[in-house]
Amino acid sequence: MSSNPRWWPYRISVEDALKRSAVVVIGVIVGANVVSYYWKPMREYDEALDRGKTELLRKYKALHDERLAKAQKQL
Fold this sequence. Notes:
Mean pLDDT: 91
Helix content: over 70%
Keywords: Membrane, Transmembrane, Transmembrane helix
Distance between the termini: 96 Å
Structural class: mainly alpha
Shape: rod-shaped
Number of strands: 0
């Protein structure tokens, strides 16, 4: 007779399954942090986003200034 509970459908014990699951979860977390630290996959995206924000701000600032100048001429 096995030491597994009746509700556990696998041959591996519950304790071993929990240990293996913990190792897998820790491995995924550590691996993701290593990849993010060394590879920096979001750096290029963040830089492009910042450039786009700056360009948009300049564009709309120029439009705003044009409209203000136009309004000043009409007065």
